[in-house]
């Protein structure tokens, strides 16, 4: 799971790779950019943002499929 997350995580400030805490992180564990040390909030916030983003992307993909099938 961690590998999948890391592929999708880029620092909004420098575009560098954000290293997520892997040693049993809690919701309060801070997440930082490995390159510029930019704080990206806590692990809990980070995961909920990621879930929101994935849900939106899946929602958009489903909408796209529905539109396609409705035209036929
Ligand atoms: Zn950075």
Describe the structure.
- The chain has helices at 2-8, 43-71, and strands at residues 18-19, 30-33, 39-42.
- The longest helix is centred in the C-terminal third of the chain and has 29 residues, at 43-71.
- The protein has one domain.
- 50% of the residues lie in helices and 14% in strands.
- A three-stranded antiparallel β-sheet has the order 1-2-3.
- It has two helices and three strands, in the order αβββα.
- The structure holds zinc ion (ZN).
- Zinc ion is lined by residues 11, 13-14, 16, 33, 35-36, 38.
Topology:
Elements (H helix, E strand, L loop, with lengths): L1 H7 L9 E2 L10 E4 L5 E4 H29 L1
The protein binds zinc ion.
The share of residues in extended strands comes to: 5-15%
Mean pLDDT across residues: 83
Helix percent band: 40-55%
Total separate domains: 1
Amino- and carboxy-terminal Cα gap: 38 Å
Low-confidence stretches are: none
Rg over C-alpha atoms, rounded to the nearest angstrom = 16 Å
Largest beta-sheet characterization: 3 strands, antiparallel
How do the SSEs run, as a string of H and E?
HEEEH
Order of the strands making up the biggest sheet: 1-2-3
Based on CA inertia axes, which overall geometry fits? elongated
How many beta-strand segments?
3
Write out the distinct hetero groups bound to the structure: zinc ion
Structural class of the secondary structure composition? alpha+beta
The number of distinct helices, counting runs of at least 4 residues, comes to: 2
């Amino acid at each position: 799971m961690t590998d999948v997350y890391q592929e999708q995580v880029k620092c909004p400030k420098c575009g560098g790779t954000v290293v997520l805490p892997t040693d049993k992180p809690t919701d309060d564990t801070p997440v930082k950019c490995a390159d510029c040390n930019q704080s990206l909030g806590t692990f809990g916030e980070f995961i909920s943002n990621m879930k929101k983003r994935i849900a939106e992307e899946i929602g958009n993909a489903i909408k796209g499929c529905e539109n396609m099938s409705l035209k036929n």
